[in-house]
Amino acid sequence: MTPLALFELFVLGAAAGMLGSLVGLGGGFLAVPVLRIAFAVAPVGVSGAALVMVLANALSASFAYIRQRRVEMRAASFISATGIPASVLGAIFVRYIPAVGFDLLYGALLIYLSIDVLRKRAAPREHSREYCENIPLLLGAGLLMGFSSSFFGIGGGLIAIPALMFLGMHPHAVTATSTFAILLTSPVGVVAHHFEHDIDWNLALPLALGGIIGGQIGPRIAQRLSSPRLLTVTAITLIAAAVGLILRHIL
Question: Per-residue pLDDT tens for 54-64?
Fold first, then answer.
């Protein structure tokens, strides 16, 4: 691993961490396709290294969000109750999917996520619904979040965020609560990947250091209202990553 490659991984972690903590997705959604396309890392290695970055990013961002008093602790606790055991399964099952299947499935996931980001960009900013706690829904979201978190290495915020928004939680609290839920669920996934010998620490450590920096920047931007242009750039980045993952198996 050259110094330049280490610096590139650090920058990737910082950028992914900033965008991930801004929208509550953990940052792995950007790191995973870059590791697959630019560094040609196998799916299991990608999941392990990206999840380490996601954990560092969520730890950093959660402190910022807790200081801002935006985290709904009960909701995050219910999500993590089922998300923690499910994250172990994700770390195991990713070993049995071929690289092409991983890339195509993740590419489709990125396209869905980009559409969701654009929808949030166009949505009105006023919020009038009251938050209604639905424990079965939170527990179900936790199962899907935990599995996808360690399977793809993305943290699972793309599952938690729609569930929390559906329940009427304020958008600012959604981002913070999703990030905190990622912090609670991802450590077990990291441990599971470690015991499966999936984590290349030469990749994971610079990504994690960058994720810590990005995790402090994202909440500050979110506190001042997310920029529509930044969300547009995020969506374009997701689409480009999805196209790259798909085309590498077509061309």
Answer: 999 889 889 88
Instruction: State how far the Cα of 1 lies from the Cα of 5, in Å rounded to an integer.
Output: 6
Token pair belonging to 217: 């920047």
What would the 3-class secondary structure string for the chain be? Answer: CCHHHHHHHHHHHHHHHHHHHHHCCCCHHHHHHHHHHCCCCCHHHHHHHHHHHHHHHHHHHHHHHHHCCCCCHHHHHHHHHHHHHHHHHHHHHHHHCCHHHHHHHHHHHHHHHHHHHHHHHHCCCCCCCCCCCCHHHHHHHHHHHHHHHHHHHCCCHHHHHHHHHHCCCCHHHHHHHHHHHHHHHHHHHHHHHHHCCCCCHHHHHHHHHHHHHHHHHHHHHHHCCCCHHHHHHHHHHHHHHHHHHHHCCCC
The half-sphere exposure of 187 on its side-chain side, counting CA atoms within 13 A, is 6
Domain boundaries, the chain: 3-247
What global pTM score does this model have? 0.85
The tens digit of pLDDT for each residue in 115-127 reads 877 776 666 555 6
